[in-house]
Amino acid sequence: MHNVMMRGAILLFVDRMRVGGIQTLLVELIDQFLSAGQPCELLLLDDGEHYDLEDEVRARIPVHKLEGIWMRKPQDFVRYGRAVRRFFAEHHDYRAVHLNSGPKNYPILRSAKRYGIPVRIAHAHNTGFQTSSSAERLLGTCLKAPLRHYANMYLACSDRAGEWLFGSRRMKAGCVTVLPNGIPLSEFAFDQKARQQARAEWHVDDATLVVGHVGRFTTQKNHGFLLDIFAELHREQPDSILVLAGIGELQQTTRQKVEELGLAETVRFLDFRSDVARLLQGMDVFVMPSLYEGFPVTAVEAQATGLPCAFSDTITREAKILEAVEYLPLDVPLQRWADAVLGLAGTTQRDACYQELARKGYDVKTMAERLLRIYRAT
Fold first, then answer.
1. How big is the CA angle at 270 (ends 266 and 271), to the nearest 5 degrees?
2. What is the pLDDT of residues 68-121, one digit of tens each?
3. How far does Cα 362 stand from its chain's mean position?
4. Which of 76, 116, 202, 231 has the most CB within a 10 Å radius?
């Protein structure tokens, strides 16, 4: 019964369904696949935490979890390999396995190859390892080789992400398919009413400059530097606020820095929100000074609502979809960043922007259609 039901299904993998750009994208893709009649399943690891997004996906498709498996120390990797082998011994009648995570998860593609699964995808979503441990980064670099070996399809959200995971030689040889991250574009079309609602929530009028950011409070997102930028900007334009949507391990540290900078009255912590599209409407400039990114989904979402954006130059140039995007180095004076943000405010005709993104293929439906063609290619 199992083999009959699962024949032709796609197995998607991500390490956990903690709210993040990749996870949000997967939820959107799952809905598109189901609408197209393509059955799919999800495989997760187990970090011991409960995530509402996982429950949301379980209501749609079968979700498998490798119970008790999470990499915290070297011996965990051995347990992980065994758990993966046990899983594929019971579940292997898939059309494709699509890995949306880093090199340490190559055992999934190894087992997929062992059982003859025809399409084995490694998908590069980032340009750096999400760890500060030099030993873990070294191990991750070493594990890129087996990941490349067991995959037979390389995908990347940007050229830079593709080079990071698969190497410049494979990029130049055309071995990597660059697939821009898509979003449900119509949800992000500029809406004046939603803008007014968001700004009413923040108790600001039309004249107030609202600088915004959406992202987890992690080292990668560089919130401390963002606060420094805003402190400089706020000295020049006192009628301004900074809104931060997201949760994460560095949220309390960020709150402490806000207090130290004397910005408690002008920085709003919005925590986790499911209405990101509405929040973006209320902002005037989107700022993302990340230490590294693949192709941030929030960059697409912000531009879909017509927001001008200031990005660190560590972010791929492919994230510049509209003209009103400026890239700045992280080591230039804060004044440069503040001036750039002030200069970007009000430079877009916001209600015309989402059509431009649709023309350039950033709708998640377009991305899903391309993926379905890849899944069915062999």
1. 135
2. 999 888 789 899 999 999 999 999 999 999 999 989 999 999 999 999 999 999
3. 14
4. 231
User: Is the separation of the CB atoms in 41 and 11 below 8 Å?
Assistant: yes
Contact status, residue 41 vs residue 87, Cβ threshold 8 Å: no
17's tokens: 């369904």
**What are the φ and ψ backbone dihedral angles of 243, each rounded to 5 degrees?**
-115, 130
pLDDT single digits (tens) 263-291: 999 999 999 998 999 999 999 999 999 99
Give the residue with greater pLDDT, 141 vs 36.
36
Secondary structure of residue 176 in the 3-state scheme: strand
One-letter amino acid at 147 equals: L
Max CA-CA distance within the chain? 67
Alpha carbon distance 86, 211 (integer Å)? 49
Of residues 201, 223, 183, the one with CA closest to residue 353? 183
DSSP 152: S
Q: What gap in Å lies between CA 350 and CA 339, rounded to an integer? A: 21
Fill in the DSSP letter of residue 219: G
Lookup: tokens for 62: 């079968």
- Dihedral sign computed on CA atoms, order 306, 308, 313, 314: negative
Task: Please give, one letter per residue, the 3-state secondary structure of 246-315.
Answer: CCCCCHHHHHHHHHHCCCCCCEEEEECCCCHHHHHHHCCEEEECCCCCCCCHHHHHHHHCCCCEEEECCC
Q: Which of 29, 24, 10 minimizes the C-alpha distance to 53? A: 24
- Residue 99: phi and psi, rounded to 5, are -90, 115
Three-state DSSP state, 37:
coil
Which pLDDT score, from 0 to 100, does residue 378 have? Answer: 65
DSSP-assigned beta bridge partners for residue 191 = none
Contact 51, 58 (CB under 8 A): no
Whole-structure pTM value = 0.80
Report the alpha-carbon distance of residue 42 to residue 191 in Å, rounded: 34
90, exposed or middle or buried, with CB in 10 Å at 0-12, 13-18, 19+?
A: exposed
Backbone angles phi, psi at 337, to 5 degrees: -65, -45
- Which residues are 42's β-sheet partners? 12, 63
